[in-house]
Structure formats: structure tokens, C-alpha cells
Amino acid sequence: MRNYRVSLRQGSQQVKVKWFLILICDILMTGYTLGWTYHYSNTTMDWATARQWCNTTYTDLVAIQNQNEISYLNKTLPQKKDYYWIGIRKINGTWTWIGTNEKIAEKDGHWAEKEPNNKLLEDCVEIYIKRHKDEGKWNDENCGKQKHPLCFKAHCNATTCSNAGECTETINNYTCKCAPGFKGPHCQDAVQCERPVIPQHGWMDCNGPHGNHSYMSTCKFHCAEGFSLQGQPERNCSASGEWTGSTPVCKEVWIAKVLLNRRMDM
After folding, report:
1. CA-based Rg of the chain, rounded to a whole angstrom?
2. What is the pTM of this model?
3. Contacts within 8 Å (CB) and 24+ apart, 256-265
4. 3-class SS at 10?
């Protein structure tokens, strides 16, 4: 874990903030970040301002995925007496992850004992980090209270999986689930088909968006003069790496040959 300190300006007031980035050796070795990272500010702010700060500086307030993530945050983050805002808010009477609009049943949340209690119009949520009791648990709180924003920065985007797969983020990692016809850690490679057999007395033209003999490519077959194509005139490279159909053949046009021979005998 590395700490960095910078200065940001809000209007005419200079605000010092501090955040941490979760780094692993893969970043240093490959030059890019794997998975999401967490960030926080040493400056306290109300929930709405905290979310705006996260949206502007990173991606959004943290959305908790599971107990492992809570344990990780509780272990890694420093203790703050004001604790941290997270990305949950009560909307139309229902607790909701604001980034995805996913509803949270109270029984399914990681609430502290006897929470949420809505004691003072408490429609936002903080997380207790390194608290002597209920550490890692949630507490509903008035949205106007001053707390530290806890943000995340997502690293999955449209190009992470080469526009050919679904990107799923985890802490310090992500995985690409490739669409049919693509492979590789980033779905960067199209499935290859072996070069089709060219029929005797014929030729073929192949092309496609990922190469002449790759997924979604098409080969069209033609026959020399005096020969007729028998079979499918084109074959497509499928997601399985196999060509559709079978190899066509070029058959000599016998009728034309007989007529030609008769004319020559006359």
C-alpha cells in the first residue's frame, strides 16, 4: 500500500486530501492496474458532497460486494473517528446501492447491532472501520453529517476485454468472460480456423473482420472456365474454429465439351 498527498482546490479554499491505492506487483510488471482500487479523503464532508467528490475524482462511493471485501477494507483502511461514507442511500423508503439501483433488504445488509434505526432521519450509510465494536458493520446516519468519502475506481471498461467479452472486477484483479469466437486473457484473439481446401480447378477468396481465416471470416469458392461448382459456394469460420459446410468441388461441364468436339469434327 502506498500513500500519496496532493492539494485540490474547491472554489477559493485549498483542501488537502490523502488517498491510498491498492497496488500489487502485477502493476509494476505490466504497467496497468488490475481490478478496482479504493480511495479516501482526509477531509470530511456530507454524503452528497462525498459522492460528488468520488464521481469527479474516481468512479463512485464504494459498493460492497461481499464479506471478504468488508474484511479487506477493515484491515486496510486507517481508523477515522468520523468513519466513512459508502454508496448506500434510502430511496423511496428502501435501502439502495446508488451505483446500480440494486435494492437491499435490511436482513441482507451488514448492519451493526440494532441498526438501521432511523433515529434522526438517517437515510445514508457509514461503515465502521476498526471500531472496537461492530467493526466493518454499517450504520444508518443523517446525510448531512461530516464523514470521510470512501471511493472506488473501476478499471473495467469497454476496451478491457477488447469489446469481445464481459469484464468482472474483484479486489486487485478482474476476469474477462469471452464471447463465443474469442479467447485470451483480454479476449483479444479471434478463434482461428484452418485454411480451407481449395477445390481442384478452382480458387477461393477469403476475408473477415479479424483475418482471412478467423472467426466471422468467409471464404467464397469459384471454378475455372469449363467447370461448374458443386456444393456450397461459401463457407464461414464459426466460433468453434470449424468451417461451416463442406468443401465444394469443380466438375467439368461435359455437355459443353461434347458440343465443342462435335463442332470441331464438322
Report:
1. 31
2. 0.57
3. 256/226, 257/226
4. strand
